[in-house]
Specification:
With about 110 residues, the protein is of the alpha+beta class. Helix content is about 40%, strand content about 10%. The longest helix has 13 residues, at about 35-50.
Length: about 110
């Protein structure tokens, strides 16, 4: 399975209260085996997609990566956003597809029952 720095970063931010110090994020991704180019690419990609923004930390010693509130319910719970197989998943896909995904199916059922 291919490791994806973007997915790792997104999950890390979500697990840590939707905001992390940029240095902590870089240390985490480095500990997961990603090099500096992959780490910078992950941060820049999520920023360009408006999934996160940079904010100054309270101490003034760097930046926080803060998750943007871009999706409202029910899209905020869409399992595809943090899925490590997103880059391989497509309708009719051989290995990964939304029509065979248990997480996507559970999300659809949750929406239907709201």
């Amino acid at each position: 399975m291919k490791k994806d720095a973007i997915v790792h970063l997104w999950r890390y931010i979500n697990k840590n209260g939707n905001s992390v110090h940029i240095n902590d994020a870089k240390k985490f991704l480095s500990s997961q085996g990603f090099n500096e180019d992959a780490i910078d690419h992950a941060i820049n990609t999520l920023h360009k997609l408006s999934f996160l923004r940079y904010t100054s930390d309270e101490k003034g010693d760097g930046y926080l990566l803060q998750k943007m509130d871009i999706l409202e319910s029910p899209l905020e719970d869409l399992p595809c956003i943090g899925c490590e197989h997103l880059h391989e998943c497509h309708i009719g896909g051989d290995r990964y597809s939304p029509e065979r995904c248990q997480y996507f199916e559970a999300w659809i059922m949750k929406i239907r029952n709201q």
